[in-house]
Amino acid sequence: MRKIRLFFIVSMILSAMFCNSCKKSDSGTDTTVTAPGVGEFVGSVTVYSKADTMLAYFLKNNYTRITGSLELYTADDIDFNKYLINLNSITGSVRLYKIRNTDLTFLSKVTKITGDLQISACPGLTSLAGLPKLDTLSGNLIIENNPKILNLNGIGLVQTLTNLTVTNNTTLQSLSGLSSLTSVTSCISIGENPVITSLNGLSNIETIKVNVVLYNNALQSSLVGLNKLKSIDGNLNLSGLSSLSSLTALNTLNDTITSVLISGCGNLTNLDGLNSLPYIKKDLRLVNCAKILSLQGLAKVDTIGGTIELNKLSAFTSFAGATLLKGIKKDLRIVECNGLSSLTGLTNLERINGDFILDDNQKMINLNGIDALKLVMGTMQILNSENLTSLDGLAPLKTISGNIDIYYNPKLSSFCALKPDVFSGTAYIGFNNYNPTWAQIKAGSCSK
């Protein structure tokens, strides 16, 4: 019993890692006890094996409502239809683990579940068929580790969820069955579903209040299904989607977003689909996406409220698409972007309020393209660029508030473009083709 309960506790914790949400507790002190109504069972109905007498007691007393949870944690052959035939509402959660049913018809009269519906490791379940009257699911819908489930048909009346979590369902082909869903008040997390190809089934969702997290769905090639989505108040987090080639299904996304975090999406070439985003509140991070060529798709973004990180983008050649970008409120980090020869496309960038880091960009020759940059509030690091010959492009930079680190650039021989009016830190320069001191650079001995 403890192992089963622990399984569900761990499942909820893992779900919470992706879906951050909080609920305020009722702080009232009213201790009035209300007698159960007719047909009301107060407490949880929990079954671990066919030897449990709870179901027989439930049937004998003709209960129709549970004020508590329904928890079926058993692979024993039990006719749940027989015992739960009159059940119509649950003021609590429904948790099903390893039950042998091929459908959920034993819940066919249930109209309301005010907690979660969690279905885990049910070996015969192919869909959610059997929930034709369910129109209220106030908590989370969690579908995980079900080896035969093909879709989510059967739950089509539910309009709002707190979290939608769909993970590790090896035969799940689509999310069809969720067409009535219009709002998710916290997070969508969909991952480790190896044959799902899109998000078809979410076609009427307009708002997601926290995060969209999609990860390790090997055949997912698009975000089709999110075509009506207008706002994500949290993060868009896409990782390990090796077949994803387009974000264009997000064309209706026209409100601010917290962060865009994309990693391990090896077929994605640009950010088209984010064209209507006016602002990114925090970070833009693109990591290990081998085919991304540019920032095309950020046509309206003029400010990044956090960090821009571009890391291991081997095909990235320019910042085209980010020509309106004027300010970065934290860091600009460009690391191992080995197709980048300059900073072309950052034409209007004026301020970096954090660090400016260029590291291990093997084809970078100079810094042309960042010709409007006036301020770096943090440290400026230029490191490990084998073909960098000059710092051309930095001439407009008037203020550097942190240190300057310029190391291991074997062809770098000209520092003449580096001439800030205000420099508050310390310059560390070494292991380049020419290694002047800061005093030499200021005095004009800036090139070899």
Chart the SSEs and their pairings.
Layout (H helix, E strand, L loop, with lengths): L1 H17 L21 E3 L2 E3 L6 H7 L4 E3 L2 E4 L6 H4 L5 E2 L3 E4 L14 E2 L3 E4 L15 E2 L3 E4 L15 E2 L2 E4 L15 E2 L3 E4 L15 E2 L3 E4 L15 E2 L2 E5 L19 E5 L20 E4 L15 E2 L3 E4 L15 E2 L3 E4 L15 E2 L3 E4 L15 E2 L3 E4 L15 E2 L3 E4 L14 E2 L3 E4 L7 H6 L5
Parallel strand pairs: 1-3, 2-4, 3-5, 4-6, 5-7, 6-8, 7-9, 8-10, 10-12, 11-13, 12-14, 13-15, 14-16, 15-17, 16-18, 18-19, 19-20, 20-22, 21-23, 22-24, 23-25, 24-26, 25-27, 26-28, 27-29, 28-30, 29-31, 30-32
Give an account of the 3D structure:
It is a single chain. The protein has 4 helices and 32 strands. The chain has 448 residues and is mainly beta. The longest helix is centred in the N-terminal third of the chain and has 17 residues, at 2-18.
Count of alpha/pi helices: 4
Radius of gyration: 28 Å
Q: Note the main sheet.
A: 17 strands, parallel
General shape: elongated
Mean pLDDT: 92
Helical content stands at under 10%
Tell me the structural class. Answer: mainly beta
Distance between the termini: 75 Å
